[in-house]
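Why show two proteins at once? Because comparison is the fastest way to build intuition. When a single record is shown, students tend to memorize it. When two are placed side by side, the eye starts asking what differs. So, the first record is below.
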Amino acid sequence: RPEFALELGQKAMLVTGHSSMRRAGVLDRVVGDLKNNGVDTLVFDKVVPNPRASTMDEGARMARQEGIELVIGLGGGSAMDTAKGIVLASTGTKPIWDYIGTDIKVSGPLLPLILVPTMAATGSEANGGASITKRETREKAYIFTPYMFPKVSIIDPELTLTVPKKQTATGGVDIFCHAVEGYITTQEPSMVNDGIIEAVLRTVVELLPKVLDKLDDIGMRTELSWASTIACSQLIALGGGYGPRTCHSISNFLGGYYDVAHGDCLAAILPVWMRYTLPVRAERFHALG
């Protein structure tokens, strides 16, 4: 929907990864659609897993120098989080890492942000948060601010049809963790909230094994895309019965230190986290079962 972009700016920075969007033909199609609708596009294709603070800073400098009016994040969670970091860092000149752990204030105009997820996993399109990795110190942190909330998110499940089997699987683990962690750790369960989370979990448990056997099934891909978006939006906490994501917190430490992809980290940690948590949260595991 390039008309959304034209309403927000005529010169866009498209933030994406090195190759997957090119191989799938998505990047050329998006750039072409934008051009045909009057939007000039600068492609910033330096995104890597565990999105780097240095990449965000580089993109922010480029956005300021090139007079960018709009930022578009196209890809998985790393691309979307990098786009968010560029939007925030481009408001001034200080590094993105300096915003972590502070009361965030911006000193300049805020670029509008469009997010287009190409896999069902992080749900970054539905919130104002971003993961940031500082490789020099092997640290990974999470930053949340309304300044990074997208103006528009376009969720097109057809874009997920080219996601390989392994990434589809680890993406499903991410969705599951986004939902189950707060379900288990909450101290104040809510029937409404439990119902929303259970629907997301049921979708992943029932459909993920099936879609791994039939990667081109648009119906199942669509259901997983919705589950991904809901699981990382404020809807997941509707009713108030949602606790901290402690498995994610552990994953961020390991991912930052060892530079392991987020979904792989979660897949390795989740069974251990559940066994460790079971003795003190037995009633919630019983409800989950």
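Second record. Ask yourself what differs from the first in the token line.
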Amino acid sequence: MGHGIAYIFAAAGNRVSIYDPDKLALSSVVGRISEIFELLEQPPEELDNIYIFENMENAIEQAEVVIEVIPEQLELKKALFEQLILNTPQETILATNTSGIPIEQIAKDTKEPQRILGTHFWNPPHLVPLVEVIQSHFTDPKIIERMLVLLTSVGKTAVHVKKDIPGFIGNRLQHALKREAISLVENGICDAETVDLVVKEGFGMRLAVMGPLENSDLVGLDLTLNIHKFLLSDLDTSTEPQKLLQAKVQAGELGMSVGQGFRSWTPEKAKEAKVRMWQYLVKAEKERRAK
């Protein structure tokens, strides 16, 4: 994911310094970024904005912003941010790309927690426009504004998550839908294929152009209220992962990688689904850039 984020800033004309303790990953990163330029039919000259470092301190010593993309391990991130604080100017924004760890937990024991915020890029970051910018109660509001301006300047859709809650905004919405979807299958209402079809061929078709609250305003809040009065009490309210999901994981039915998850997958079907998603995202990003 880091090379995709590096592409975003380099393509917009910013100098980007990259450090990775994994020598193999570091040696291949320019090639991987070059493939993104080719994929999106962008002029490769901006690759000259990429600088590779084998030493982290040298990479970050003059940085205006540092974005870490290390594994989702709290202690690992806390240790890294201590080093970032020690080796960067005080005005440098320090961002974590965590998709789940509360920003407060990362920042609270550091010497300068006010410099730390979350930037949740969605994968793949060079194709999905959204970035959630998350503040903890430690975060200086001024750096939130700086980050929102910076991300907007490089073509991202940056949103401000004002409270540091688990899942931020996008993952809370996504997993609320998944919870109900799994419940429908678990309770024999329909099979997994039907759930996916209802989303893709039904309300999902309008989600890319009209969000759920936009749609509520379109149909009328009185209608939304009336539906909620009889429907909400019947929706799934599980506070633990459903038994169906747990049973599938315990049985090794992990999804496309093994040929069985909620649905059955041949290698050909799995490849077709991945290609279909990839082509859709690439087409959407090219169209967005052309506007």
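One difference worth noting in the second protein: The chain has a mean pLDDT of 96.
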